[in-house]
Amino acid sequence: MQEENTANTADVVAALDIGSNSFHLIVARIIDGSIQNLHKVKQRVRLAQGLSEDDMLSQEAMDRGLETLSQMADTLKGIPPENIRVVATFTLRKARNRQSFLSQAEAIFPYPIEIIPGKEEARLIYQGVAHTVAHDGNKLVIDIGGGSTEFIIGEYFNPLHLSSRSMGCVSYTNQFFNKGKVTERAFQQAIIAAEQELEVIVDTYKATGWNTAHGTSGTIKAIREAIVQNGWSDGEIKATHLEKLKQSLITYGHIDNINIPGVSEHRRPVLAGGLAVLIAAFDSLGIESMHYEDAALREGVLYEMQDRFKHHDIRERTIESLSQRYSIDTAQAARVARSACFIFDQLETEWKFGKNDFRALLYWAAQLHEVGLQIHSTGYHKHSAYIVENTDMPGFNQEEQLAIASLVRFHRKKFKVAELPNLSLYKTNKLIRAIRILRIAAILNLRRRENYLPGYQVSVHEDKIDLLFPTDFLANEKLLNADLETEQQIQLSAGFELNFS
Asked: How much is the pTM?
């Protein structure tokens, strides 16, 4: 008897894209470098509709999102948690009260939600397309989301230019077609606004050039379907087709009246805003034709997960790139990182940092803790933190960057616990413990000498740290002893006990 062919759950990966218009879930296996889809779920939530002018997300919009997350959680049961990645984009990036949503989500959705920067979203979108489109020179990729639109030029798997612009099908429909009227004037206002948004990238993108243009996600898919269904094209999108579709929408007069074959009733209310963005992109960049691609952000996330499983982590390349750019003393960074990881490994059994990889955060923070040294030698920890928090760091989500910046900021001098950010992925008490580890690792390596430290032991009882060195080591190393005494007082002022002997 032949058994049903089912996937081993250990081989199954899942990506959930919490978008401004829709939530997309894909469950798949990656076999020989290609995605084998097992299950797809798409729910229109329209989070961006609940974003006010002062960037506050309404509870009504949150509730729609939370209900969808609850349903997604059921679908994800049985998949190893480490094989699941959840990313959120424009609306949660922008919402000032996003922490409220994340806190409510934590109660019903047992997977960490990563809010990714706009350029990181663009990079992942490009990876999804690059893995599924033949390599035929430079590619221009455009993804129109609910609140933002990503523009990427890349060659093979390497993005050359990444940009995320604050314009999307939901936000532009709300702004320019807010009363539902679809008019030539409303379109022109939306198109001009989009062209203004694109001004900063046009010259660079045109100078770089591309061989083919590709559109992804729901808005461009709906536009392509409308063009095909009307018999204007067999799938290729051109500026003349967009103009015909615009005139067709205007004839309906109102969003509620739109009834175009190939465009679902859920997509119709936001089609005008998305079309205006695409028309502006064609006009500004001089795009001659575009093809729709089914791969997008979620596929890019899956391919990235696969790379991490194979230890090809782009985050390592990002850290290395920053080290080179800012001429970091890599030998010193390596010493501090080695000590931080050594201390972490001794304390992990007692402190139980959990599933979020604090060891990796410590390692990365140690690699970058002197990145601001070229700016100012005395307050370099503050400059280092600013650079880490505000630079583009491919592969890192917003909270990873902020956590690393916090580690770097407080690895020396005053330890102001009250100034730590409130993060969702990383609990404050564990972040504090990681900072204490990095502070000790930095002090132990102030001499900047290889093979300086003897064998030593670190232990904890609750939040009290004990350092034990060989007999007479500290008696002979008076400067290190003095540095540890200073650190002991700083940690005591912050409410923590550090002992050494």
From this structure: 0.86
